[in-house]
Design goal:
alpha+beta; 5-stranded antiparallel beta sheet; 3-stranded antiparallel beta sheet; 41% helix
Length: 161
């Protein structure tokens, strides 16, 4: 009788190898997907933090401009506790609307006048702590990947003159 020595792979060996390779590929694909989601989330948070910082700086510029013309008490008494909007090229507060998103224009500036609606909303809140202190809160919210995200920044303005 002849004895045959089989050369090659068995069906079980091929299936096992394919399973191990596919599990590894699924892991790599999931890792790449998570990396892309994290990059998008980081980008949105970076834009939101820039918009929050811009909101605080605009309020400081408005206060500085008004404090140079009048004293702290006149400016402080002219504003009310509540919610507002601000824009980089305006020297005054805009009444708040929760349904109005920031727009992004052709130059990449966020504002309310023209451009395409962005996913960002900015709310400025004033709260008078005392006659010498104003609590300023900037809230940025945005809609991304089926959920709302928020970033809140707080600052205090003082009677510095």
């Amino acid at each position: 009788m002849f004895k045959y020595k089989q050369k090659g792979f068995t069906l079980i060996g091929v299936i096992t190898t394919l399973f191990i390779v596919s599990v590894g590929l699924v892991g790599v694909i999931n890792l790449a997907n998570m990396s892309l989601k994290s990059a998008t989330t980081s980008k949105m948070r970076l834009i939101a933090s820039g918009l929050a910082q811009e909101g605080i700086e605009i309020i400081r510029d408005i206060r500085r401009a008004n404090a140079n013309q009048t004293n702290w008490s006149d400016w402080y008494n002219a504003i009310s506790n509540g919610d507002y909007r601000v824009q980089y090229d305006k020297e005054y507060l805009i009444s708040f609307s929760s349904t109005t998103p920031l727009k992004i224009d052709a130059q990449g500036y966020y504002q309310y006048d023209s451009g395409n609606d962005s996913s960002f909303y900015r709310k400025i809140n004033f709260y008078k702590e005392s006659s010498n202190e104003l609590k300023l809160t900037v809230e940025i919210k945005w809609y991304s990947r089926g959920r709302w995200s928020y970033l809140t920044v707080e600052d205090r303005l003082w009677n510095w003159k």
